[in-house]
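Final report, closing paragraph on structural work. Over the funding period we assembled a curated collection of sequence-structure pairs, and we close with a single example.
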Amino acid sequence: MPLVSNPAIWHIDYWELTFRLVLALVLGGLVGFEREMGGHSAGFRTHILVCIGSTMIVLLSMYGFAEFANEPNVRLDPARLAAQVISGIGFLGAGTIMRNGFSVSGLTTAASLWVVAAIGLSVGAGFYFSASVATALVVICLFFLNKLESVFSKSKTSREILLNIEHKTARLHDIIDQMNGYGIRIHKIVVENENNPTGEEYVQLVKIRMQIKIKQPKRFEEALMFLTSLEGVQGLETVSFAS
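Its predicted structure, as stored:
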């Protein structure tokens, strides 16, 4: 007596299989195209490959072992292979995340890879509508909300502060706390060490480069006065740059 009442559920014809893979290519490509236009590390081809790969894994999990469906000691679990995609894609996403000092970039691209993997799983399982809606929402989030975010960020002035201070008096966490107290948002900090000749002695300096955004110019002037009053300050420069 067969253990599966409807063995046909474990089979898929070639046309349906091809359709799911092509749909995965299209949906993954839509998300990847937006990332490619932004010059991100994971772009058009990467997102397509992730989406097709996720779809293929679901297809394999659901239909690849159909010949064993009626074996007495075999229990098919279509979700087992698919579940590994969600955790496995994290390793690929981690490769897109870059850290430079206090600045972290690539998180959105890593998230888009994770979502594309989920879209591929949905396509492979036959959830075409949910996969299509999810793709549309992701593209809206990445493209249109990014434009909206840029509009709001234009209300803030972008500056770069270059502070040279003696190593023995430099307390970076105190400087950050004080700048936050003045309502100044620090986007990126780069710290460099160098030796500066002073008379017959060499004084070890710390060069702190801060990229900031400010809303209130008056508070910015107060912050500059605070920085110049710090003990051991050897120089202070400010530069405006485009957001």
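Helices lie at 14-37, 44-63, 79-94, 107-125, 128-153, 172-181, 217-228. The two ends are 70 Å apart (CA to CA). We thank the funder for supporting this effort.
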